Amino acid sequence: MTSRRPLRYSGIITRISRQKTRTTRKRSVLEERIAQMIQETPGVRKKVQDSSRFVEDLGFDSLKMTELMAAMEDEFDLIITLEEAVSIRTVRDLKDTVKAALKSTKGVSDVAS
After folding, report:
1. 62: how many CB neighbours lie within 10 A of its CB?
2. Suppose 27 and one of 31, 40, 95, 109 were both cysteines; which one would form an S-S bond, judging by CB atoms 3.0 to 4.6 Å apart?
3. Which of 108, 87, 94 is nearest to 34 (CA)?
4. pLDDT averaged over the chain?
5. pLDDT tens-digit readout, 47-58
6. Are 50 and 91 a contacting pair, CB within 8 Å?
7. What element of type H or E holds 102?
8. In the prediction, which pLDDT does 106 show?
């Protein structure tokens, strides 16, 4: 029986791991709060995912989107411009917009990606 030895490649020792790696990344507290606010919107019955589209998947109309933007502004004390608001199509777009707004208005440099 042969013993398992580390593989050597150009002087670097690497080990083959039999553990499965998780492909899902952890959500930050900010991302969790945004997802929670979307999920709490009346009429949203589907699970909110980053790839969820507001109109097609979650059933948002212009009024719901406007109310959601206002709630985001109140919750995080920021301003979402009209140009930014009209470019938001998915949950990921909204999270990115909120993070960018927080970085620019608050000077927050440690907003989790």
Report:
1. 8
2. 31
3. 94
4. 80
5. 999 999 999 999
6. yes
7. helix 91-106
8. 67
